[in-house]
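Bit of a strange request maybe. I'm writing a small parser for structure token strings and I need a real example to test against, not something I typed by hand. Could someone generate the tokens for this chain?
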Amino acid sequence: MEAQVPFCSRRLLIVAVLVATTLPCTAARKPHRVVQANTVQINVDQLKVLEGEFTSADEPDTPLSIYVRDGKLYCESDRRVPTGLKPISATEFNVDGTRIQIRFTPDAAGRAASLTLAAGTPSEYQRTGDPVHHLFHEYERTEEMIPMRDGAKLHVVILKPSDITTPLPFLIQRTPYGVDETSREWFFNARPELARAGYIYVGADIRGRYKSEGDFVMMRPLADHKKHKAIDESTDTWDTVDWLVKNVEGNNGRAGFIGTSYPGFLAMMAGIDPHPAVKAISPQAPMIDVWMGDDFFHNGAFRQTYGYDYVLSMESSKQDTDVTYGQDAAAKPVDGYDYFLGRGSFAEDVKQSGAKVLPSWGLFLKHPEYSAAWRTRGVEHALKAVSVPTLSVGGTYDQEDMFGPQEAYVRLEPHDQKHENFLVLGPWRHGSWGSSSRHLGNLNYGEAIGKEFRAQIEAKFFGHYLKDEAGFDLEDTASFQTGSNTWKRYAHFPPQASHTESLYLEASGELGWAAPAAEARTSYASDPAHPVPYRARPIQPTYSADSQWYNWLTEDQRFATERKDVATWKLPVLTHDLTLTGEVVADIFAATTGTDNDLVVKLIDEYPADDADTKMRGYQLMTNAEIFRGRYLDLFTKAAPLKAGAVREYRFGLHDVDHVFKAGHRVVVQIQSSWFPLYDRNPQNFVPNIMKAKPGAYKPASITVFSGPGLDSRLLVPVMGQ
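Reply from user aminoacidic:
Good idea to test on real output. This should exercise your parser:
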């Protein structure tokens, strides 16, 4: 299973999580023939019986190798450099530099048959063979301050292989999350396939963050590149590459960029007016438009917890700041649901934060609509050419930036005359393609799809464009199809075999493939005083150590199904598999008794009660979901009240999917009008700025969804083959 990690790990690892079985990075120390810890002395023969490869039945793709070298016991894996083990007893050891313990269990002959890794929840490993030794290049680490065109100097850490004599390309990640801990151990841990392939790796602090000079601006807008001194992330990238190519010996004159989330946005910026040396970029879960569908807003609905937590952590200082919701009278952590409900509006969040009005908070409060402040940050508006080969990577369970990679691919595809615009989609949460796990929350995919992607696609992509290596054979799109749990490759996404069909919302909570002949109405009451939680409570700060934020899109939706403020429709039990590949679009006709409204639409795969996997019996798994704020039905740039009682059409995308609803399952659609506190509450009574709404502005409303001739509420679904 995957470990939940706090925010600080995100800035260090590029990915949101790594496998819990991965051991901490510590450099191997020079061993001695006889090892002593306190009064324990263990000879080489005693250590030899502990050697072997040990594999977890739960996560078999991350085995540990234990072996003796120069009289000392070591542990390594494919992404961990050899790490020394200190003896506590003949069968118990501490991992050097940590409090993690490894306990061996011998068989009848005295040889280690299994081990227990005690790091949080103990993990059991069985001996599966002889130890395996992996290739680990030696990397020399240096630091530089690189001058930009306006005089500011930006900090970089350079890792250069000392055991490779041929010229190598640069692999660069620019980040706001700090690069001080960039090292050989870190590189192999974070990106083992690329570290093993051999690159001159560069980690760079962006302007105004950590050791870099200048001012930090969240998702800095593009500048006019005709002005020589104008600066943005694209120009800083250009200047960084130019300096590296000219000043770092042993490079082959080529550079590639990689990054996830904010670094994914920065990788995308490397492809806008690129330096001639930039030959490949892989923006992974990039922030493309933080108002339309990425971090801060979705279709005008403000992401309250994320906008509060992330900005407080990023803009309070040049480094990261921990966020807490405090404790209650019983000294227990305050539930985020109560924390934000008690404060009311986002303006009150800011007022009661104890911090100054941070720059992005100021943008939220001043520009709740899609103004120039947000449009100039929208990278999609600049994607008018595939300037360099681009490998966009996204997760269909990405809780932060699902929109970005899908939108980037769509925007670049019409300009892809050279067939160098590639897309990879998988059932990953934010950045979890960096994991070697077979699981995501309660879901088991049966194979380490992140590891397969990294080895078969990512490493070969950079090898092809930066080193002229053979083997990269992706035509256009690779997608791991859920339900069938198989990799698919398509000449385009969605594939030609996908065609749109309508799934209609009928009377009595039924779904059907034929348009209903008679009008039907389904109503529910929505009360801002009791909003629908977006996930099971309690709700922790986004990046706290115990946060359940990471997997919330895979949570069982039965916690919401029985609520009276959630409307539900179901298809009969499927008699054959139903495959959806492409974008799902909601087309809903609804009215409210208020003058504003949010509409949340969810497409759900309901598992049978007798499913073979006991954890999944009756499980309601979202495959697609999105929100739309009613005040922007006419224009995203200007809010307008809804007319009470008037039927309006809500048509918006629920993102891409590649999923098989298996025979025996049911297709479910849910509609609700709150998703709290991830999204702020809509007062349901029009006010000019929801973020500044007063307590008395929040009013209950009755929402009615219509179906029938002329008002055919439906989901447009991309059906394969049927």
